[in-house]
Write a structure and sequence with these properties.
Elements lengths: L3 H11 L3 H4 L14 H16 L10 H19 L6
Length: 86
């Protein structure tokens, strides 16, 4: 499986920079994902997406779904009054 650990090992073995092995910026490359915070966010987003119906039935693409989630989080934050921004 290709993940951030495998990419780091390959870069070290080839004496290359990790960035030389990535197609996208490190924070955007799906094969370089792997920090625990990214994994938790991905699991949360997957659950929200699946709760709206199976991927084939969900009327949203990822971008509008994300915007909808941000809007709902912002409204909930304002109601709680914590001042947390997304």
């Amino acid at each position: 499986m290709i993940d951030s650990g495998a990419i780091k090992q390959l870069a070290k073995a080839k004496k290359m920079s990790v960035k030389d092995l990535l197609v996208l910026a490190p924070q955007n490359d799906p094969f370089y994902a792997g920090p625990p915070s990214q994994i938790e966010k991905a699991k949360w987003f997957t659950k929200v997406y699946e709760d709206m119906g199976s991927p084939g039935e969900c009327p949203y693409s990822a971008r509008p779904l994300c915007a909808s989630c941000q809007s709902k989080c912002r409204k909930a934050t304002e109601q709680i009054g914590t001042g947390i921004e997304s």
